[in-house]
Please model this.
Amino acid sequence: MQACRLRTTFVAFAVVLLASWGGAGAHGSTRVAGSTRAAGCGQANQGWLFNTYNNCGALNGAKATVVALTKPATISQIADYHFDNGVAVKPGTIGLQAPNGYVFGPFKATQAAGTWDWIANANITVPPGSYTVLDSSPSTWSQNSFSGGKGFVRVFGSYVASAPPVPKPAGTTTTSTTPTRPTCSSTPPSTFLISPNRVAKGGGTSFLLACGHAAATSFQGSFAPVKVLLYDEASFRNLKYVNGSLQPISPSFPVRAPLVLSFKVVGPEDIDITLPASIQNGTYVPVIVDSKGEVASQNLLVVP
Model:
């Protein structure tokens, strides 16, 4: 049995006691909060299509979980675990992104009394492939070292003989290095927008800058970028602004060094970015550095 590796820096713990979830309807589970130790991090095999729940301490801030299906499957429900230090989190939505970028859902989640499980009815049939779970509250989605920092997920359903092909995405995802050009909004964002914001490794995207405000270097946006940084979402939450620049909240809060991305100014309102092929799957916060300081994006960048 693998020993638990637990952190107590800034998140309280929960011991996840695995219980069998029966029936085809809503499922319940038993949890005990407040413990900082468990005998091991093993997973019980109860016949789910996919399961990353385990019985070690639960931390917040999960990375997106990828569900690998080797056969066609009908997915009836998806459950995500949101312990959040024992504080109830209002259920949001759970979606499932296919390898081509198409998103099933997102489906509205509910929460049974006495549990911290968000449960969404999906009722979809999908072909084999790797599907990314999209949780509307990654900051409270539970994870730990045994799950590799990825969110606790259970997928209910059954394998089937065949499945229809996944629909094509409606222009929200691209792997091209020359993405569709975004346009300026009549009401510029307070920071900047990523368009599209779900991009495969090695793919391209654009940062839409607020228009109509002349800046240095003849760039007609709100910012004149000098550098583009890319923080993983968990590290970005451990940063704060000090005189316009991002600094760690304290030495005890871990911050991974950001990626430095190359960029190209392509118009009066946007810059083009190409992600490195070596980037890890996950959720990121791009930051533009200009002469006035550092500015974070308004939406998140997801690398499925």
